[in-house]
Specification:
The structure is a single chain. With 408 residues, this protein is an alpha/beta fold. It folds into two domains: 89-276, P-loop containing nucleotide triphosphate hydrolases (Rossmann fold, 3-Layer(aba) Sandwich); 282-392, Orthogonal Bundle (Helicase, Ruva Protein, domain 3). The protein has 18 helices and seven strands. The strands form two sheets. It has a five-stranded parallel sheet with strand order 2-3-4-1-5, sandwiched between helices. It has a two-stranded parallel ribbon with strand order 6-7. Helix 6 (156-169) packs across helix 18 (393-399), helix 13 packs parallel to helix 16 and helix 16 (360-371) packs across helix 17.
Length: 408
């Protein structure tokens, strides 16, 4: 009996020693881990390895400029410049070709001086941000959501295209495409239809600019069953939470946009820049016409130019005049008359200059079709359908309004 008792006692003692050893090892491991976390956490600028609710490592703020953290980060990151270095904005401009974009605004777009000045200010801000980043200086990304107001044909769509290109060149936007949308592209006709439509458009616009033309039509206060407010709510959320991935530009008549903002104050508070496109004056419209003709390899004789100027002045008094868009339509019809005049003389031999030059008769015929009365205008419209004026992209952009397309 004594031997079994001794054996059992020995096994019990050994088991107890094993348990004590395991507990000690666990405690030692925990102490070591805690010490490691404390050391990592105490090192300036390093992550502590904590997890967010999603199980992913939490992001930690970048060190502030001028701090010890920032100095150590500069020593670790070879791309950052030392504190005593200097930068030249000539280099930044050449790298981004920002001067090319701004020069094209001046050469391809007539007038719009306040708008161009605003675009240049935005470009300057982003250039300075690029230079600051090279020193490790950080600041919140600027809010660049915009509202373009003005009558039709004043260059709103064209400026949105150029703005998308500008923001892409400066690194603010990843892609720089422009997605043009209107109410029908965003708002559904029945319950559950609006959210998927709006999100599809937003997905296409991510990394670029979403241009919403006639944005006030999104909201219809008189219709209690309208789903436009749902689209607005989605837009508000995305404009606030994904500013780094998307710039939204709202466009429309100034008075109607002001009413829209009155009933949607959340939208107004998210718009940082309001740009008003005023109607063109007579000289600007004539210059736009000359630009369109030049980029389409056409020109006017001196007599035709005087006739065209008179014609534009008369058009400006007509209801429904649409600035550059109306000028484009007039030139399209003048081209038709020019072609009919030349092709009607089958035996005549025409020179290169003849094929390029518009004469007063080409303008007069179009002018009479517009002013002799509604019957003659309708007749001229049926007999002479509008032909798209081919030529430079700048002139076409200034008059056209694409739908949900990306520029190539």
């Amino acid at each position: 009996m004594i031997v079994p008792i001794v054996i059992v006692t020995i096994f019990a003692v050994l088991a107890g020693l094993a348990v004590i050893g395991v507990v000690g090892a666990v405690r030692s491991g925990r102490s070591s881990e805690a010490g490691q976390v404390a050391r990592v956490g105490s090192r300036p600028g390093a992550a502590v390895g904590a997890l967010s609710h999603s199980g992913q490592p939490r992001a930690h703020p970048r060190p502030r400029a001028g701090s010890r953290n920032g100095d150590r980060r500069r020593r670790r990151d070879p791309d950052l410049l030392p504190a005593g270095a200097t930068v030249s904005f000539d280099e930044e401009r050449k790298e981004t070709d920002i001067d090319g974009v701004l020069s094209s605004l001046d050469s391809d777009l007539v007038g719009l001086v306040p708008i161009k000045r605003k675009v240049e200010q935005i470009a300057s801000l982003l250039l300075v941000d690029r230079a600051r980043n090279r020193f490790g200086l950080t600041a919140p990304r600027p809010n660049l959501h915009m509202c373009f107001t003005g009558p039709p044909g004043t260059g709103k769509t064209t400026m949105a295209l150029r703005m998308a290109d500008l923001l892409h060149r400066l690194g603010y936007l990843e892609k720089g495409q422009l997605i043009h949308a209107m109410r029908d592209d965003l708002v559904g006709e029945f319950v559950g239809h609006t959210a998927p439509k709006t999100k599809r458009v937003l997905d296409r616009a991510m990394g670029g600019v979403l241009f919403i033309d006639e944005a006030y039509y999104l909201y219809r206060a008189a219709d209690s069953k309208d789903y436009g407010q749902e689209a607005i709510d989605i837009l508000l959320q995305v404009m606030e939470n994904q500013r780094e991935n998307l710039v939204v530009i709202l466009a429309g008549y100034k008075d109607r946009m002001e009413e829209f903002f009155t009933v949607n104050p959340g939208m107004q508070s998210r718009i940082a820049h309001h740009l008003d496109f005023v109607p063109y004056d007579l000289d600007e419209l004539v210059s736009i016409g000359q630009l369109m003709l030049r980029e389409a390899s056409y020109n006017m004789s001196s007599a035709a130019m005087a006739t065209f100027r008179d014609h534009v002045e008369q058009q400006m008094r007509l209801p429904g005049f649409a600035n550059a868009r109306s000028v484009r339509n007039s030139l399209d019809r003048a081209r038709l008359h020019h072609a009919h005049r030349l092709a009607g003389n089958a035996g005549q031999r025409w020179t290169r200059d003849d094929l390029m030059r518009l004469e007063p008769d080409d303008i007069v015929d179009e002018f009479r079709a517009r002013t002799d009365g509604p019957d003659s205008a309708a007749s001229a419209s049926r007999s002479a359908p509008s032909v798209q004026l081919v030529g430079g992209a700048a002139a076409r952009e200034q008059a056209n309004r694409p739908r949900l397309t990306e520029p190539h």
